[in-house]
Amino acid sequence: MKFKMNPSKVLYVRYVASEATRDNLLDLVAPFGVAQKFVIMEKNRALIQMGDVKAATAVIQHYSESPAKIKGGDVHLQFSLHQELRRQSRKENDPDRRSLPSRVLWTTIHKPLHPNPLSIRMFHDIFSPFGFVEKIIMFESVTGPQSLLQFAAEESAVQARNSLHGRDIYDGCCTLDIKYSDFQELHVGVNSNRMWDFTVQFVHPNNRLFMEQRAAIQMYGSMPINHIMPSTFLGDDGAESSGSQDVQSVLEPHGRSTLLVSKLNPDKMDADKLFNLFSNYGHVVRIKILDTKPDQALVQMEDGSQAQMALEYLHGVMLFGRCIQILYSKHDYITPSQGSREFSNSSNPNGVHRFVSPQFNYRHCCAPTSMLHVARIASDVDMGDISSHLADHGTIIKSRLFEFNGRRQALVLFKSVQECTEALVCKHASMLKGKAICLSFSKQAYL
After folding, report:
1. Can you name the residues that pair with 301 across neighbouring β-strands?
2. Phi/psi of residue 413, each to 5°?
3. Spatial contact of 152 and 136, defined as CB atoms under 8 Å apart
4. What is the CA radius of gyration of the chain?
5. Most Cβ neighbours (<10 Å): which of 177, 292, 355, 444?
6. Res. 84 pLDDT band, cuts 50 70 90
């Protein structure tokens, strides 16, 4: 009698060609979802954990009709007896000790020959398109410059590693060698030019050298002390030496609260949509679209820390087919005029205010994600109403309506970060059955 396997989100792969690579296997399941965990075993076998049973079932059904092939040979997939892959304790000399995914990535830079310095900002710009980056620590070892980077979700770390491992930051040099770290949580003693915690409100420290060294010793106390060397990449001010006066490091102390936003899609963006986006990070005071350059705008936040947060989280975000760029403006504030819009109470015409309790809400600020949090939901609205209201802006993968502290809320997962961002800028504070809904990005990775 044939034994029937119970569905599982873990796939058991057999008859894998000996020359097959990790990427070959992950390419098999990529159309159906992100592989969260992955293990290559002996005797041409592998285990792949999908995000949920539905995604794993889709893989099995597809390849039962059209057999999977790698390197010209058939590959057999079936449900595994495991319901979930768990991290195993490994010995230090085990070559596969970092084969299981983790939300913390350990990156070594090979051939660091480019004159431009490595920086927290650079690592954030490289990795943030894959998800919310919580913490980054840079250090040097005997093998060269290294960094530890912590994502909010393991899924984001897997996507980043699959896409970036082996690629060069600059042509022919600064090659990324990315492994999964055994650390479950990084600890940043103080934000500095060598380490940064993006989950807290941005505060620029003063003299950071002592605190930086102390945090590094605490973090890598088990490593030989000569594995931690003073930085030779950045100056004392922490600014990037890019050669361009237009580029300013987010680590450089700024008292300014006004930002210059460029590369906007002028056919799609206006002051209200900019407010919907930037009010995720604080109180928006005033916005002005430039008359002579309609793809640029000035956004004035209430204070410098809010402006810095918005710059760090939104610089390089894709929006309506454009990669928006954000710099500090040379203007300290926007002069009230006919061409500017006032948002002094930081709420829109429908009265939706994200920061009634700023101390609480700042903890939830994050870079754009593919998950929307929906609040202020009317009692007669169901999940179908919410999905229909947002569906014009992208593919909704999953959604959930729930109640927390007596308030109706929802989470909506889009196919991509860009679709989610566009839904937020267009539908935040829009009316749904007589009540203006409040949209914000969620750090939650799964429903």
Report:
1. 284
2. -100, 120
3. no
4. 24
5. 355
6. confident
Residue 145 is encoded by which pair of tokens? 């410059």
pTM of the predicted model, to two decimals? Answer: 0.48
The pLDDT tens digits for 293-343 are: 999 999 999 888 888 888 888 888 889 998 898 888 888 889 888 888 888
**Average pLDDT estimate for 50-71:** 85
Model confidence band, residue 350 (pLDDT cutoffs 50, 70, 90): low
For the stretch 147-195, pLDDT in tens is: 999 998 888 898 899 889 888 888 888 889 999 888 888 888 777 778 8
